[in-house]
Write a structure and sequence with these properties.
The complex is a heterodimer of chains A (297) and B (423). Chain A is of the alpha+beta class. Chain A contains 9 helices and 6 strands, in the order ααααβββααααβββα. Chain A has 2 domains: 112 residues, no CATH class; 151 residues, no CATH class. In chain A, strands 1, 2, 3, 4, 5 and 6 form a 6-stranded antiparallel sheet that branches. In chain A, helix 3 packs across helix 4 and helix 7 packs antiparallel against helix 8. The longest helix of chain A has 29 residues. The two termini of chain A are 38 Å apart. Chain B is an all-alpha fold. Chain B has one domain. In chain B, helix 14 crosses helix 15. The longest helix of chain B is centred in the middle third of the chain and has 37 residues. The two termini of chain B are 32 Å apart. The C terminus of chain B is likely disordered. Classes of the chains: A alpha+beta (297), B mainly alpha (423). At the A-B interface, helix 1, helix 2, helix 3, helix 5 and helix 6 of A face helix 1, helix 3, helix 4, helix 6 and helix 7 of B.
């Protein structure tokens, strides 16, 4: 689904079903301009301090649990005068309503498109975004069944001034190798490139035309990411400077299990992007460019 | 209507009344689930802490101003989605390092329960700042922590297993022995420093307003509430204002705890119900596939072994869906719930290793822990205390950090009725 780029990214690794982009969901409302809704979750804006909260004068040895709350010292509303009791009732009403509304909003946000979300989608999005966005379609409706590798080659200017085109670097394979045998894979290996590619695919059509701001952002992000990775791989040899990059994806089906009689094609499918010129703005900290060399460390 | 009938009606009405009254006094009289909220506080804080330490060498690539997702790119996206992140306050590397270190410190201190109220807010700021800065870096684990960090701010999650509780207990013990303990200076000082920083950020125009004042109202409200709390507990002439604030705090805590539980249910329900629609979950092969994705198979040989038997894969596939779909409903039956809970925690522990998703799994286990029975958690606490005593055998006293406040108010069986305490 067009996880047009936000939180979770769970959708990214759980994405999918046989055809990618399968869920015929509504257009993703990712970029809704909204106010931080959190204040609404905090009607009383009050969050007190338990260190001072010794409301119940307790025994000072580990007492066995007493299961009789009725006999604990009066510390609830029972101990309050009518004026305070009314205030408590008011607070109770506000907190209850806020909690119920919030829960309803969360439910509608994760529920499939339905009558209510179609009618009040805007209001729900304004409540949910940006801080309560979530996506729990964990490996659902179907787990991803393809390995999508992002590969890149570059045109570099070598130290002798010559222009050369490098081989394809399979950055995903490098990620995979880094993850192999790793108890604590880093997000930089597991998520960065994978989700950058998802972001790109989700914000571009099949002719690689961006869909506005997010499309443009995804291009620059992907470019900065692959240039950094190429430089770390010393693409083009020591001291060579990347001038242009060309990115492609290689999608292969996961072979069906041995016990299954299913057949799927084992031919990879490629999606190739045009050559992208690399400017100074595309060199992140840690790339080989002379300008950033010093700032990197 | 016979008088008998009338009496019957009156009786049932008053029974309802009594039930309602008991419900209200429950949600206002105590912050429920002290052990559960403590264990999720420790769980989420520890997960985020270990994550930050693990990613320490990569921090600049992930969230730094000149990483691949540069400050400039983030700026454009955030201008669009208005997410909160202190990292956009400045594009300097120093500021980034400060925020990262503060995120590490606040998670460590929240885990230990030192000045829990303040730390829960700083923890949330750290989580939101880093995650919102680079939204394309995270996965479901980050998403869980993001949500829970917000909810934790409203819970009184330091009632047990915290340094706050220990300090409180020692103070009480000292007073009981007739010793005079000096006033707490650290609390007011921390409050002052945070107020100063908040004022600076506000004056610099860094904190967003928005609906009802947005984040400005939120942060200043929290800060003012702390001040009011201190004032009332130190200066008020009658007990009433203090009890009133305590009741409000309990209300908020209980609502937030309810949201945390509901959120966990939403996660499982969504994950389960969407799976039912998938052909692979129907034909019983779904579990095979993630294990054969290059990005999620750190142990290919193990994955091969685990998926060698088709029937076994089908059983796990069906079992996963059944457990996820069923879980929210089992909350009404304590025993079934506990069995499913054990199954889910086990599955997440397996996922951590087999799919190479340790932080996602840790976060999910922390979320699951909110449903653990108090009796089990107390036993866990005793084991931990004993282990600690044995570890530091010179340790002066083998007291169990068993907070009585919770003991007193959290009857064993109070643990599953939480589900319905919207009152």
């Amino acid at each position: 689904m067009a996880d047009i780029g936000k939180r979770g990214g769970m959708d990214a690794y759980d994405e999918g079903s046989n055809p990618r982009h399968e869920p015929p969901d509504e257009p993703e409302p990712a970029a809704i301009d909204s106010h931080p809704p959190d204040d609404r979750a905090a009607p009383a804006g009050l969050s007190p301090d338990e260190r001072a909260a010794g409301a119940a004068p307790p025994p000072n040895h580990p007492a066995p649990p007493q299961y009789d709350s009725a006999h604990s010292p009066p510390n609830g509303i029972a101990a309050l005068s009518l004026r305070y009791q009314i205030a408590v009732a008011l607070a109770l009403a506000v907190v209850t309503v806020a909690a119920c509304v919030h829960l309803g909003m969360m439910f509608l946000h994760v529920a499939p498109s339905n009558t209510v979300t179609k009618q009040h989608g805007q209001a729900i999005d304004e409540w949910v975004y940006p801080e309560f966005e979530q996506n729990w379609k964990l490996f659902a409706p179907n787990p991803l069944q393809q390995n999508i590798a992002v590969q890149v080659r570059a045109e570099v200017r070598a130290t002798d001034g010559g222009i050369r085109t490098t081989r394809w670097y399979d950055l995903s394979a490098l990620d995979g190798a880094a993850i192999d045998g790793n108890l604590l894979p880093s997000h930089t290996e597991q998520n960065a490139l994978r989700r950058a590619w998802d972001f790109y695919v989700g914000t571009h059509d099949n002719e690689n035309r961006p869909d506005g701001l997010r499309g443009a952002l995804s291009e620059r992000y992907l470019r900065r990411l692959v240039v950094l990775r190429l430089d770390r791989e010393q693409a083009g040899g020591q001291g060579a400077v990347v001038q242009q990059v060309k990115v492609r994806s290689r999608t292969t089906n996961v072979p069906p299990p041995q016990w299954s009689t299913e057949k799927v094609s084992d031919k990879p499918a490629f999606r190739e992007l045009p050559w992208w010129p690399v400017t100074e703005a595309d060199r992140a900290a840690g790339t080989r460019d002379t300008r950033t060399e010093a700032g990197a460390q | 209507m016979s008088s008998d009938d009338r009496t019957g009606t009156l009786e049932s009405a008053s029974r309802l009344d009594r039930k309602l009254a008991r419900g209200i006094s429950r949600v206002t009289g105590a912050a429920l689930g002290p052990y559960q909220t403590a264990v999720i506080r420790i769980g989420f804080a520890a997960t985020w802490l270990v994550f930050l330490l693990r990613e320490f060498p990569h921090r600049r690539d992930m969230y730094g101003p000149d990483g691949p997702w540069s400050w400039d790119l983030a700026q454009q996206l955030i201008a669009d989605n208005r997410a909160f992140t202190a990292l956009m306050w400045s594009d300097s590397l120093i500021w980034f390092e400060i925020v990262y270190v503060l995120a590490v410190l606040s998670s460590a201190l929240l885990m230990l329960g030192w000045r829990t109220r303040a730390m829960s807010v700083l923890f949330m700021i750290g989580v939101l700042s880093l995650q919102n800065r680079s939204v394309f870096m995270g996965d479901g684990g980050d998403n869980v922590i993001h949500l829970m960090a917000i909810y934790l701010v409203f819970t009184r999650c330091g009632q047990v297993w915290s340094l706050d509780e220990r300090r409180e207990r020692r103070g009480r013990e000292a007073r009981a022995r007739g010793e005079r303990s000096g006033p707490d200076r650290v609390g007011p000082a921390l409050w002052g420093v945070l107020g100063f920083l908040l004022a600076a950020a506000t004056l610099a125009g860094k904190v967003d307003g928005g609906f009802l004042g947005g984040w400005l109202t939120f942060f200043w409200g929290l800060w003012a509430a702390q001040g009011l709390w201190w004032l009332v507990s130190h200066r008020a002439r009658t007990a009433e204002p203090r009890i009133f604030l305590d009741v409000l705090a309990n209300l908020l805590h209980n609502a937030a705890l309810f949201m945390i539980m509901a959120e966990a249910c939403l996660i499982y329900a969504t994950a389960g119900w969407y799976k039912i629609q998938g052909s692979r979950w129907q034909d019983g092969t779904a579990v095979y596939y993630p294990l054969h994705l290059d990005y999620f198979s750190p142990w290919p040989a193990l994955a091969e072994l685990l998926t060698a038997n088709g029937t076994l894969v089908m059983l796990v596939t069906y079992g996963t869906v059944v457990v996820q779909v069923a879980f929210p409903f089992t909350l009404f039956n304590r025993r079934v719930k506990n069995v499913l809970l054990a199954a889910m925690i086990t599955e997440h522990a397996v996922i951590a290793v087999v799919l190479g998703l340790p932080f996602f799994s840790l976060a999910m286990i922390a979320a699951d822990a909110v449903f653990l029975p108090s009796s089990f958690l107390r036993r866990l606490g005793r084991w931990a205390a004993r282990a600690r005593v044995r570890l530091f055998s010179r340790g002066s006293r083998p007291t169990i950090p068993g907070p009585r406040k919770g003991d007193q108010r959290t009857p064993e069986k109070a643990e599953h009725p939480h589900v319905g305490f919207t009152a």
